[in-house]
Write a structure and sequence with these properties.
The complex is a heterodimer. In chain A, 58% of the residues lie in helices and 7% in strands. By secondary structure, chain A is α+β, with helices and mostly antiparallel strands. In chain A, helix 1 crosses helix 13 (333-360) and helix 17 (432-457) packs antiparallel against helix 18. By secondary structure, chain B is mostly helical. In chain B, helix 1 (3-22) packs across helix 3. Chain B is elongated. Classes of the chains: A alpha+beta, B mainly alpha. The A-B interface holds A 167-170, 172, 186, 190-191, 193-194, 288-289, 325, 330-335, 338-339, 341-342, 345 and B 1-3, 6-7, 17, 20-21, 24, 26-27, 66-67, 70-71, 73-78, 80-81, 83-84, 87-88.
Chain lengths: 512, 112
């Protein structure tokens, strides 16, 4: 083996980073947006106002709706109104294969809500780990990319071995490549604990899906038993096959609430209408790292408690703590802002790495860029600017699509992907520096337009100041970035006109 | 995990990282315009690590062992980003900013 360890790690880092960079950039950006999923959802349903959420009457209204509309379902789920979602969300399962049925009900009346049909912040949340594809396929793509990203992260620490010596260094006054390399190193190293944590816990969160064989071997096909023993859910009691009369719901829930101090989050009825029907009261997570919901199951016919979810055992506690760390539900406003910043740094590390790949391979003056370089350049712009363009268009679509449009939520997704695809096509057709400027400006204008369109189309006045400020900030940052590219380009053209000569040989990545 | 406890954390982490940055010859030259003695660099390094340790202790005391370490690491990232930004764009501001961070940390500690 003639190559040294560091060279082989540099090779691994370069290619592992390149092939997963585009997917992982999108995963990081949408995941970072998901830290504010609740705020996005509130903004996207301007008809709804946060009000008192009395969980037990809301649960009764949800169950009444399901009794009338899904009497034959295997299971009912009623999600109590939340501060970020002031509606009663009901879901029902007709069979294990069919997708869940769902409806959003007004908190006061229990009738289907008049609020606009939208996925709200859940759109980015689902994109973050399923890419809005078929769940199994999307999760596998994200998981595989995340596993390779973890390899890229660790080989990156070896490759960029000077990151600790250059901890605070960002040289903007040297060559372009030096600047990009420093930006890549600084964004990478400053939030390195976050990058490692979020990538690892992200894989672990869906670990049982990626490596199901342990559970299959130990539980011999009875996978549900695993989740019961891991204190994630209660036991499924099979239907008796004969109808049964359920005791009133509210007293059961009140008894459950008497035992647990957390607010009621969801009510589940398994085998509704059956003599063996089960009512499960699910509560919000107690404040802590671990992601676990207290749950109490009742026999619906007698009203007696049949099961309480056990306290977490050590392995399950570690697993749920990883999930908790990944989701950061525990984070207060200030800490959440730091998580958000770390997420942005993660996206910036990936973006600067992708750009660095092209800068290090820039052709000498007079040479035409090859197909591979042009493709990577186009995909870089199409992803790094195309995704923000899609997101801004998604917000604008939420305000501009007619409220009573059929399949409105799907249309919003269509606007997101349509705008992104359009940006990607433009980025492949235009000269690449021109495309950076033009699409950057377009993204800036679109984000800047969101608060304006929001103010013109709703009567919520100053209710969304923080959201509007964030949109303006993003728009301004993107527009300033575009201006910087265009200035840089103008200076470069002027320098080239003044002194034609051989271009500087790019510094090697490995040497940096 | 109040905003005040995070402010205390950020201020101590910022002061510590700024000292560590000043302890590095390249940055010291860029900030102060001249080199420094080895004793001074060592003193800065010591002060820097001490401030980071104090920041960790403050995080664990105000937010316990569950969230303290998470909060500490988050504050390091935020503070380091500020140091890099200042060193790169406004090097002259970093010493006054680090000195200002100490009374701010004290004020946050008294209020928290």
């Amino acid at each position: 083996m003639r190559q040294g360890f560091r060279q082989s790690m540099a090779w691994l880092h370069t290619w592992a980073g390149l092939v997963t960079g585009w997917v992982m950039f999108a995963v990081f950006v949408t995941g970072t947006a998901t830290y504010y999923r609740a705020d996005l959802s509130l903004w996207m349903r301007p008809e709804l106002r946060a009000g008192p959420n009395d969980a037990i009457p809301a649960a009764e209204r949800g169950i009444a709706y399901l009794k009338a509309h899904a009497p034959k379902a295997m299971a009912w789920y009623v999600s109590a109104p939340q501060p970020d979602r002031p509606v009663i969300a009901v879901y029902w399962m007709d069979s294990l294969e069919a997708p869940l049925g769902q409806a959003m009900l007004d908190v006061e009346t229990g009738a289907p809500t008049k609020a606009r049909d939208t996925q709200g912040g859940d759109f980015f949340y689902r994109f973050h780990y399923e890419l809005q594809m078929m769940p199994a396929l999307g999760r596998w793509i994200v998981g595989a990319a995340a596993m390779i990203l973890l390899i890229a992260l660790i080989s990156g620490i070896v490759t960029h071995r000077r990151i600790f010596a250059d901890f605070f260094t960002f040289r903007r006054d040297r060559s372009a490549q030096r600047g990009w390399l420093d930006a890549h190193n600084v964004t990478g190293v400053l939030a390195l604990p976050f990058h490692l944590m979020i990538t690892y816990t992200g894989i672990v969160t869906l670990g049982v899906m990626y490596m199901p064989w342990g559970v299959t071997a130990a539980y011999k096909g009875d996978d549900l038993r695993f989740y019961v023993e891991a204190a994630q859910t209660t036991t499924w009691r099979p239907a008796a096959g004969r109808p049964g009369e359920a005791v009133p719901l509210a007293p059961l829930l009140a008894r459950a609430q008497g035992e647990i101090s957390e607010p009621l989050e969801m009510v589940i009825v398994n085998n509704p209408g059956d003599a063996n029907a089960t009512v499960v009261a699910v509560f919000e997570e107690p404040h802590g790292l671990a992601h676990q919901h207290p749950q109490i199951a009742f026999d619906a016919a007698s009203g007696s408690v049949v099961e309480r979810v056990e306290p977490l055992k050590p392995a399950a506690r570690v697993f749920t703590s990883f999930m908790g760390l990944h989701e950061a539900h525990f984070a207060s406003t200030a800490l959440r802002a730091l998580f958000f910043l770390c997420g942005l740094l993660g996206a910036a590390t990936i973006a600067t790495g992708l750009v660095l790949w092209t800068v290090a391979r820039a052709p000498k003056t007079g040479e035409a860029p090859g197909f591979g370089l042009r493709l990577v350049r186009g995909l870089n712009i199409g992803t790094i600017l195309g995704l923000p363009i899609g997101m801004a268009a998604f917000f604008l679509g939420n305000r501009l699509l007619p409220v009573d449009l059929a399949h409105r939520a799907t249309w919003e997704g269509g606007v997101f992907f349509g705008a992104w695809a359009l940006a990607a096509v433009v980025s492949l057709l235009r000269p690449h520096r021109r495309a950076w400027t033009e699409l950057g400006l377009a993204a800036g204008l679109l984000f800047g337009a969101v608060p304006v369109v929001g103010a013109l189309t709703t009567d919520r006045g100053l209710d969304f100041l923080a959201f509007d400020a964030a949109m303006l900030g993003l728009g301004l940052a993107l527009a300033l970035g575009a201006r910087k590219v265009s200035h840089y380009e103008a200076r470069r053209q002027a320098a080239k006109a003044a002194r034609p000569g051989p271009a500087r040989v790019p510094e090697g990545l490995v040497e940096a | 995990m109040t905003p005040l406890s995070i402010a205390l954390n950020l201020a101590l982490s910022f002061a510590g990282l700024a000292a560590l940055c000043l302890a590095m010859d390249r940055h010291h030259r860029a900030i102060a315009g001249r080199g420094q003695t080895r004793a001074r660099a060592r003193a800065l390094r010591l002060a820097g690590w001490a401030a980071l340790a104090a920041s960790f202790a403050a995080a664990v005391v105000t937010s316990d062992w569950n969230f303290g370490p998470v909060q500490w690491i988050g504050s390091l990232t935020g503070a380091a980003l500020l140091v890099v930004g200042l060193v790169s764009y406004r090097p002259a501001w970093i010493r006054p900013a680090a000195l200002l961070a100490l009374p701010l940390a004290l004020a946050a500690a008294l209020l928290a």
